[in-house]
Amino acid sequence: MADLALWKHITQQANIAFKSEIYAHAEVLYLDAIELMKTAYSERNLSSTDDKPTMLHIICLSISIQNLADVYARQARWPRCFSTLERYLNLYEEAASDAQDDPNLALAFLQESCRLRRELFRHRACEKTQHDICACTCHQDKKMTERILH
């Protein structure tokens, strides 16, 4: 569970940078949070013990991906925003089908893939409007982290 505490700390620091419009720093921190969750997930997945990846790890990774996409959207780096969401959306959908022996894990992957798809559509709509203030300004970090951390 130390990895989740570290993830929370990194995410909080990234959220502060995002709100302060220090996007380069926020990007680095969100990428660190993604790598932390990917590593934690891989290590748990490969261990021979009952230390299985948890739904919490899957959700935290998804939150970090969505936050990173928000950074790219805020900077109007649309190709990067879309490719990030699409890449992880595909990985989540594949993981859901691979997790057939654990229905709870498969469900977590499916639920988060739906959230990633929703974010992809939201950002595509924002790109089309090309307004200075659009749906992308409503960074969901607080709402998303409260969903799992409190």
TrEMBL record:
Highest taxon of source: Bacteria
InterPro entries hit by this protein: TPR-like_helical_dom_sf (IPR011990)
Stated name of the protein: Tetratricopeptide repeat protein
